[in-house]
Amino acid sequence: MLFSSIPFLYYFLPIVLICYFLAPKGLKNAVLLVFSLGFYAWGEPRYVFLMIATVLVNYFMGLLIDRYRGTLKAKASLAISCIFSLGSLAYFKYADFFIENFNLATGLGVKLLNIALPIGISFYTFQILSYTIDVYRNDVKVQKSVVALGAYVSLFPQLIAGPIVRYSDVERELKGRVHSFDKAAEGIRRFVIGLSKKVIIANTMGEMCDAFKMSDDKSVLFYWLFAIGYTLQIYFDFSGYSDMAIGLGKILGFEFMENFNYPFTSKSITEFWRRWHISLGSWFRDYVYIPMGGNRVGKARLFVNIFTVWFLTGFWHGAEWNFIVWGLFFGVLLTLEKFFYGKWLQKLKGLNHVYVLFAVLISFVIFSASGMGEAMEYVGGMFGYGNLPLVSESFVYNAVSYIFVIILAVVGSTPIVKNAYNKLHRTKARGFLDVLELPILLVLLFVVTAYLADGSFNPFLYFRF
User: Which of 109, 116, 222, 332 lies at a C-alpha separation of 20 to 30 Å from 249?
Assistant: First the structure.
C-alpha cells in the first residue's frame, strides 16, 4: 500500500488514527503493531511471516545478549541475530544475482530461484540490526516487550522506505509518547507537503522519464533532459516519502530523523552525502566504517574502509552491477576530495556547485539503468556516443511540455521557498500566513486526490530496493 493512494489516505489512515487515539496508553503499541502488520500484509501477505520471524528471533537474541553480557554467549547471540537478518536479506535480495554471476563465470546453467523481493526488507533489516548491536554495545536497554519491539520494526510510517530509524532514536517514545495538537498539526503539514512533492512533482518527472525511454527519437539534449528529470524524480519521490513518514511519526508521537537537507545545494560530494539519505549514511558510518577503524588507520587501510563502505552502499540499493558501480563512483570522488582536491574545491565558488551537479547527474543516470549495459548506453548518449544529433523533436516537445514542473522542481529542491516563508513569518505577515496555511494544504490535498482518482502514473522508485 502506497501513502500516495486513495485506500491509504481515505480508508486505512483514518481508521488507524481513530483506533490509535481511542486506545488507552498501554495498548497504543499493540494497535500500531496490528495495523502495521496489516499495512505490510496488504502488499506482501506471505512475507509478513518473515517480518514476524525477524522480530521474534531478534527479540530473543536481545534478551540473551543482555542476560549473558560480556560472555561468549552474548557474542554468539549477536552473531545469530546478524546471520539471521543479513542472511534473510542476502537470500531474498541477492541470491539470483550471485547465481547469475556464477553462471557467467563458470559457464554453468544453475537455475535462478526467481524470488520476489519482500518490500522494505533493506530498511527493516538495518533497523533491527541497530537494536541488537546497540544492546550488545550497552548503548540501549534491552526491550522486554515483544509488542513494543514489533511495533518498532514494523512501524508503518517508515516501514517501506525509511528513514532508517534506529532503536536508540525511539527507545523512550516506545515506552511513552507525548501527543499534542500542535505536534499533530505540524505532522499533518509535513505529510501533505511530502505527499504533494511525490504526486505532483515526482510522478510528473516520472512520466517524462518514461516518455524518454519509449522514444525512438533520442538526442544528446534529450539524454541530458532525462538525467535532470530522473534526478529530480528520485529526489522528490524519496524525500517526499521521508516527509510523509516524518509527518505521520509526529502525529503518532514519534520524532524521526531528517533524511534530506537540500542536497543539490552542496559544494562537494562530501557535503552532498551529508545531506542525501542521511539515515543510511549515518548507519554505515556508525555500524561499518567506524568499527573498521574509520579514519584512525593508515592510508592503505583507510582506502579499504572507504571503498568497502561505498561498495556496500551501492550493493544495498540493488542486486545489479550498476548499483555497485554507482556506489564505487561516489567512493572514488570522496577519496579524491579527501586526499587531493578537497581544499582546492572549496575555493572554486560557483564552479564547485557545477561540479557536484554534474557528478550527481552522471551518477543517477547509472543508478536509473536496469544494468551496466543500459547504464553505459545512457552515459554515452549524454556525450553524443553513436553519432546522436544534438537536438530532436522529442526533446523539444518534452522540454516544452514539462518546463513548468522542471522549474518548480528545481526551485523546490533549494531552500528558497522555506527561507522566504520563515523570513515573512518573522514579520507582521505572520498572521496572514497562518490564516492561509490551512486553505493551501486543503487545496494541495484536493489536487493530489484528483491526480490519484484519475489513476495517474504513481510508481514508487524505492520499491525496487
Answer: 116
